[in-house]
Amino acid sequence: MSRFSFAAALIALSGSFLSLPASAADVEAGRYQAVLGDCAGCHGRDLAGGVVLKTPFGKMVAPNITPDKETGIGNYSLADFKQAMRRGVAPGGRRLYPAMPYPYYAHLNGHNIATLWDYLQTVKPVKKAVDVNQLRFPFNIRALMRGWNMLYLRPAPIAMEGKGDDWNRGAYLVNGPGHCGACHAPKNMFGADKGGLTGASLQGWFAPDLTSESNAGLGSWSAADIVDYLKTGRNSHALASGPMAEAVENSTSQMHDSDLAAIAVYLKDLPPSRGNGGGATGVEAQMKAGAIAYDISCAACHGRDGKGSALFPPLAGNAAVRQVRAETAVRTVLAGGKAAATPGAPTGPGMPSLGWRLSNEQIANILTYVRNNWGNRAPAVSPETVGRIRAELHGGS
Amino acid sequence: MAKLLPKKDVVVIGLGWTGSILSHHLAEAGLNVVAIERGPWRDTAADFNIAYVQDELRYAIRKDLFLRPSVEAMTMRNNAAQTALPMRDYGSFLPGHGVGGAGVHWNGHTWRFWESDFTIKTHLTQRYGAAKIKNLQLQDWGVSWSEIEPSFDQFEYLCGVSGKAGNLKGQIQPGGNPFESARARDYPNPPMKMPYASTLFAEKVAGLGLHPFPLPSSNLSQAYVNSLGVRMGQCSYCGFCERFACGNYSKASAQTTILPVLMKMPNFQARTECEVLKVNLTPDGKHARSVTYLDSHGVEYEQPAELVLICAYALMNVRMMLLSKIGTQYDPVSGKGTVGRNYCYQTSSGARLMFEGKHFNPFIGAGSLGQTIDDFNGDAFDHSKLDFVGGAGISCTVTNGRPISNRPTMPGSPRWGQGWKQATVDGYNNSMGFGAQGSSYPVRENYLDLDPTYTDRHGRPLLRVTFDFPDNDIAMSHYLSDQMEKMTKPFNAKFAAVSRLKKGWDSVPYQSTHNTGGAVMGSDPKTSAVNKYLQSWDVPNVFVVGASAFAHNAGMNPTGTVGALAYWAANAITDKYIKSPGALVAA
User: Which of A44, A141, A336, B558 is deepest in the core (most CB within 10 A)?
Assistant: First the structure.
């Protein structure tokens, strides 16, 4: 009588959109391009858009890129798609904003873009209109991007002779589809990369320094540590949370091991940044008060020695607390956070919010202590900084 | 009219310990599983915030995590001559509510029932003769030790139990429980660090020739990666376990062991704040078609499925069967019918000791932190000259020094004012205790059925509990109190008192949330509601999983055995039932 219909967690294939169906191998290759480019990070796991990006120029919402004809990209041709991916120009000459990281995607070759296109044709079309452009005047004028592209869209060749295949593959992944610099590279006043992956503030987080600098950067991480982190969301130094948790879940945890190893080779070879400006000085009172508050509120999980445990991340040597700016640490204490959960590390432990019970001053003291203890060195945190971030979390811009 | 939903392979009623274990096991096997949970979603990071989870007033006194009588009450009485009345507030036991169930707020004592429990009737009849147990409704569980032992192991390695093996493959291990049944391997984690009171207890009772050992605990002695790859933290001995959720990821629960993996599975779905009203059967009553449930807006749905797993709290499992007409109501007069049969509880008493000049520091505590002796548990001792069967584990645990509920004072102290304040200061660090958690054996007249008068908010009859401590268990408990009297002597305490249980179960003061039976497992469909695989004899595509399947309750906390039965049933479904759906045992 009973017949069990065994679930197949396959993405529904609907190849009828193509006159010439793509091969399964092309679609799979394209799916992997979507992993490398973390399309889901902005466009959502169903790729129907709606993820809000807060930029210094106002809000942008990632559009629907499913093959829906009315609200998605169902009316694009492959040529249209290539233009959008590499030049930031949509059909009809409409300019995209570089929140869509086309300056990075410009490094993708034609074959990679074509397979990605094949894959996108197989995604379930979703009818969902998205109000993309919510920028302030004058940034909401798309034509301005013509000028921006002239100034900043200069995809320089990435490959370097003599660096070896792994280095070159890593350089391509980091600076091409992986678009790491979109978060980790400091920006100029027009939102263009100034160069270098030395860490940057965005959306209320500080994306850490990825160079080989030994204090704020990844100097103390081995290549294997980098691979572990990208694959599982954790290693013995850190636990991914916030936007990086999403990047790990949607993208890096699904990358091939050989690609992760290549990324590690490249990052380990980045020249060190100038660091975070060194440790706090003249803050004995803050350090003393911070030590007491830390023992009461933090030590049960992170340890009095700052070493954490197999579950909770260490704070000693943790890049997230050693950056020049302390946004990430401040907002994690204020609002809590949730770690990445991946097949390799499924737990996804959470940090509770403590903002309701710790004052700005207490949090500033604790973080100044954490940033300058157990070998950490980073500038002090002021109560004003905590207050500003608290206000932002409570609905400010 | 209920909205008809697309059919699933499996519908699970209740997402607590057993529901999570079965959901994961069956989803892993590729089945499409939906769990329907009456209470809210609860997650460690968001709901068990370490910064407020130790709020004793909110959680322990106002019982924030527990089932409210407005959601589901029960009526209770001591015997059939009385009229049962509904509880206005849960007291003697506190069922859980929401995802994780009672496994969220348990203490973490993780015992294995013994080989002699699963064959209790055979064992006691062989040792003492049938006349010894003629007043009890004891029966074998239908499952053998060699069958169930691997399932205990599965649950222990899921939870990361901290303990010391006492019997490894028949070899007695020093420092462990010499009375436990043979286990294939040791616990996954070493015992917890012992506090002073438990250490003192172990020293004194060892001096009497007894055999103390560390209580097997699901409060973790060290960080652990469990059998599903989920990471758990080390217990911080904060003393907020029972009635509380753990904010430290160090007490095993569905949240800390299974849900992180289960919730990511594409073929699993949880629907919370949805209450199943009944299981719908085909007209011949032999096959479950679907379940009917209400969501939080009161919208009614019908969820069809090939397989229905009733995984709510033990008492609710029985009620769900009765409301759905799965099996026949047990009748205590004729002895016929099986649903509601062999309801059992727990038979407890305790010793309290007061000293001067001690520093017990009770704030260093954990739910299952302590030392136990099983010398007087089960059939570990000779009952041939005694007028009862059964026994109790005696444990000295240090669970908490919480400010509202833990204020021991010397008897005779003032009850208020300055004198009382001084007495609580004196008593706090000078008080310790130990307790006997006794077996509860079934008798004909203790049972569960539907109340003829009182209904719930949906108009369904409430469950009626008819229970009193059987004479056998009272005699057992008094014997245990006598033993505890002797055990207090070597402490040379300034004051020592041992409680003695009286007939007449009182449903108001808290005693134990170890309600068992009512849908018991066994090999005879005349005396058991489910077969040895926890499959309904009457409706073979329904499995009823939990302490409802216990044919009696032993002198141990039930969760370890509940977890083992969940794995046992889950393995039977994937290994046998899926391959050939239908009755796994011929009736």
Answer: B558
Phi, psi of B288, rounded to the nearest 5 degrees? -85, 130
Instruction: Please state, in angstroms and rounded to a whole number, the distance separating the CA atoms of residues B389 and B45.
Output: 46
Looking at residue A62, its amino acid is A
Dist CA A201 CA A380 (whole Å)? 17
Inter-CA distances, B572 with B125, B341, B564, Å: 30, 24, 12
Cβ distance A347 to B43 less than 8 Å, yes or no, reads no
Residues from chain B that touch A7, judged by Cβ atoms under 8 A, are 9, 30-32, 266-267
Backbone phi, psi, residue B4, to 5°: -85, 125
A312 interface with B at CB cutoff 8 Å? yes
The H or E element containing residue B451 is: strand B447-455
Instruction: Show residues of chain A in contact with B249, CB under 8 Å.
Output: 311, 347, 349
Q: State the amino acid at position A323 in one-letter form.
A: Q
A237: closest CA among A319, A296, A295? A319
Q: How far does Cα B103 stand from its chain's mean position?
A: 9
All residues of chain B having their beta carbon less than 8 Å from the beta carbon of residue A356 are 51
- In terms of CA atoms, which chain A residue is nearest residue B289? A2
Q: How far is B546 from chain A (nearest CA, A)?
A: 25
Q: Tell me if A336 sits within 8 A of A350, measured CB to CB.
A: yes
Strand partners of residue B436: B349, B394
Using one digit for the tens of pLDDT, what is the confidence trace for A309-333?
888 999 999 988 999 999 999 999 9
- What token pair was written down for A379? 């500038």
Q: What are the tokens at B117?
A: 């429990």
**Which of the residue ranges A56-65, A266-275, B399-408 would you say has the lowest mean pLDDT?**
A56-65
Q: Model-level pTM?
A: 0.91
The residues of B annotated as belonging to the active site are 514
